[in-house]
Design a protein that fits this description.
The chain is α/β, with parallel strands linked by helices and about 300 residues long. The protein has two domains: about 90 residues, no CATH class; about 170 residues, Ribonuclease H-like superfamily/Ribonuclease H (Nucleotidyltransferase, domain 5, 2-Layer Sandwich), CATH 3.30.420. It contains twelve helices and five strands. It has a five-stranded mixed β-sheet, with helices on both faces. α5 packs across α6. The longest helix has 19 residues.
Length: about 300
């Protein structure tokens, strides 16, 4: 303000009225005309931050951007990234606060909660979590079923459909079993108590493959928190949540879901629970570690 008004009022009068030290004003002026190396470096880093921010379509906050920059060879602190993002007005999309769902009616096919919130298995293809979400389109509701490997948070199978029949989850599971090298008798699958998971066809498929069934406690969505979190991220980053007016056609939804899940989430998106690596990179690193351990042994 002093700089803008200096042609109309004496600087001595302005600094007195604004309760600012005269030396402080001149020090600020010096920084504007001749910034130091720290300020110059800040501007360079801010530019790199903005590139990462927009490359990931405003999906990354400071923790993931910090990891991207470190991997690119910039050894800077996370607090500095936070400060520069605030300075540049860069704010990632935020999700709605999670609200637990209501309880569902009981069923004879309901299984015990074998998983018991143990969301960090030591190996892939040991524990998978599944769930279904709904998405509004130009032609009515569509439903997305997914199966997630809890070891790497990788989506190993998914399917979009126009109905909520049990075939939605069984077809997604067939895809997952076909793509992964799984010993079904060693696999635990966890879901909520939805009718698709207590249906005879789904239960028959699990028994045929000797897969252990686990289900959340009655009305307790926290028991399947990984799936809930995935859907929250999916809707937020594709701008399909309840706060968005975006409406896709079923074909557009299929295309964008495939690109986001297979091309972005599994391959690129950094996940905080797996050391800020993407699911595929995390699995590859774990596979290399097992091979090295075997060679040493």
């Amino acid at each position: 303000m002093i700089h803008q008004l200096q042609d109309r009022f004496p600087i001595a009068w302005l600094v007195k009225r604004l309760n600012v030290a005269r030396s402080g004003y001149y020090a600020w002026l010096q920084r504007q005309t001749n910034p130091g190396p720290r300020a110059t470096e800040d501007d360079e880093i801010a530019g790199a931050i903005e590139v990462v921010f927009h490359a990931h379509r405003r999906r990354y906050g400071s923790p993931r951007i910090h990891q991207e920059l470190r991997e690119a060879g910039r050894h800077i602190g996370r607090k500095r990234v936070e400060r520069l993002m605030r300075r540049e007005g860069l704010m990632a999309r935020t999700r709605r606060r999670f609200r637990p769902c209501s309880a569902k009616a009981g069923n004879d096919a309901v299984a015990e909660n074998v998983l018991d919130r143990q969301f960090q298995p030591s190996e892939p293809n040991r524990c998978w979590a599944g769930d279904i979400t709904y998405i509004r389109t130009t032609e009515g509701w569509r439903y997305l079923a997914v199966w997630i490997d809890l070891f790497s948070r990788r989506v190993v199978g998914w399917k979009l459909g126009s109905t909520l029949q049990a075939s939605l989850v069984t077809e997604a599971l067939e895809r997952a079993l076909g793509q992964r090298r799984v010993k079904p008798e060693q696999l635990l699958i966890h879901t909520d108590r939805g009718s698709q998971y207590t249906a005879a066809d789904y239960q028959k498929m699990l028994r045929a493959n000797k897969i252990t069934c686990s289900m959340s406690g009655k009305g307790n969505c926290w028991d399947n928190a990984v799936s809930e979190s995935f859907f929250s991220t999916f809707k937020l980053e594709l701008q399909l949540d309840e706060n968005s007016d975006r409406l896709l056609t079923p074909w557009e939804l299929q295309r964008e879901s495939a690109f986001w899940i297979e091309g972005y989430y599994n391959r690129e998106r950094r996940h905080s629970s797996i050391e800020y690596l993407s699911p595929i990179v995390y699995e590859a690193r774990a596979r290399r570690a097992r091979i090295m351990s075997t060679m040493v042994a």
